[in-house]
Specification:
single chain, alpha+beta, Outer membrane efflux proteins (OEP), 4-stranded antiparallel sheet, two-stranded parallel sheet
Length: 414
């Protein structure tokens, strides 16, 4: 009895020092402080710098040379030559800028895609914690009930009202129930640590306790509305579209590089002869790009562009399939949750209490009471799992649709 009281007191004390956090506070914190999210957002800065770097022009060249063709003492044939040159390309810089701009838009879409999955994963972690908290509460309630029976049985055994076997059975049941509480406590702390990881703060994370309930009352819209929304908002479709634009931009860039370039040179030579004189020269050079006659690069560019267009259609089809699956899953889990009701659970609790009274009055053996107690515990676990699956299915439906799971949502009733 003393051990049971001490164990219960320890559990209660742990609950007392727990730090409550709402879903809104949790999401607000992770969106501000998560390390992975901060690192991922730096990709935008890199893309901006790439756009800036793409705007550069070709650098000019400066050449200086000294010549001496005769005897140094005569000063014949000595001269200094200075030449300035620049290569002009046609359309290469513009197409390079278009590629960088398309890659920047794709980077933004990649960040939005990461955020879509990040919010959903963080929300599921919060739901897992709520589930663990509900299971822990149920396990503690069962432990308290069985501990009371075990304490009463020890007194009844001393008085000779029950046999030793009944007393030992209640003690063993108490031990099993105690292990269930410890297991539930470990799962509760582990899920809290997972939340702390998302929040970028593991100090005392095991003491965090989420507030709210897994029960949701949202009714889904029509599946066609969800599919249409997903096709318009899913970042992965935008990523595929930008990939197609990048493929086309690279094809234009390669075409621009195959165009003839123009090398312009201007220079002056000063000769130290007697009398001295200066020579001015200017010229142009046009490379003869016979290599451009090779059609290999053209075929590659056209194939890559065609492949990107096919990937866009494949992405749309995949998004539509994911929405349909998520929609059906939510409907199925909703029906599962509807099989349970608070009235049914309360009735089962009354049955357990009646069996306990019957056992304490000696009308039934302890095993009959224990079976009913375990049945009720199993039913409540199934009820919690049904609520959890329905809540997760709702999150997955929003993930598939591309809707943002921002803090303050009514997805979790608080």
């Amino acid at each position: 009895m003393r051990k049971a009281l001490i164990f219960t007191a320890i559990i209660i004390s742990l609950q007392t020092v727990a730090q409550n956090i709402s879903y809104g506070e949790y999401m607000e914190c992770i969106l501000q402080d998560n390390i992975a999210l901060t690192a991922k957002s730096l990709d935008i800065d890199i893309a901006d710098a790439t756009v800036t770097a793409s705007k550069i022009f070709n650098d000019p060249t400066l050449a200086v040379s000294y010549t001496n063709n005769e005897d140094w003492s005569k000063g014949l044939g000595q001269g200094i030559e200075v030449e300035l040159g620049k290569t002009f390309t046609f359309g290469v810089r513009r197409e390079r800028m278009d590629i960088a701009d398309s890659e920047r838009r794709q980077t933004i879409a990649l960040l939005e895609e990461y955020m879509r999955n990040f919010r959903a994963d963080a929300t599921v972690a919060y739901l897992e914690h709520l589930r663990a908290g509900m299971i822990h509460t149920e396990a503690l309630e069962v432990y308290r009930s069985i501990s009371e029976v075990a304490v009463n049985d020890s007194i009844r055994f001393i008085k000779g009202d029950i046999a030793e076997s009944d007393w030992l059975e209640s003690r063993m049941a108490q031990g099993v129930s105690r292990n269930a509480v410890l297991e539930a406590e470990a799962e509760l702390c582990n899920t809290a640590i997972t939340m702390g990881y998302y929040m970028n703060n593991l100090d005392g994370a095991e003491n965090m306790r989420g507030t709210g309930t897994l029960e949701i009352s949202e009714q889904p819209a029509s599946i066609n509305d969800y599919i249409q929304t997903a096709l318009e908002r899913r970042p992965d479709i935008i990523i595929a579209l930008e990939s197609a634009d990048i493929a086309k931009a690279k094809a234009r860039f390669n075409k621009a590089q195959r165009r003839p370039e123009l090398d312009v040179n201007i220079g002056a030579t000063y000769n130290f002869s007697n009398p001295d004189f200066t020579t001015i020269k200017a010229g142009i050079a046009v490379p003869l790009k016979f290599s451009s006659l090779n059609k290999g690069e053209r075929v590659i560019d056209a194939t890559l562009a065609q492949q990107a267009e096919i990937e866009v259609r494949e992405a749309r089809l995949q998004v539509e399939a994911e929405v349909m699956q998520a929609y059906r899953t939510f409907g199925f889990t909703s029906k599962q949750a509807e099989t349970f009701s608070h009235e049914m659970l309360n009735d089962m609790r009354k049955v357990v209490e009646n069996k306990r009274k019957a056992y304490e009055l000696g009308e039934i053996p302890f095993l009959d009471y224990l079976i009913v107690q375990r049945n009720e515990n199993e039913m409540r676990h199934q009820y919690i799992d049904a609520l959890f699956k329905k809540a997760v299915a709702w999150v997955e439906l929003q993930r598939a649709t591309g809707l943002e799971l921002q803090y303050g949502t009514q997805m979790i009733a608080e």
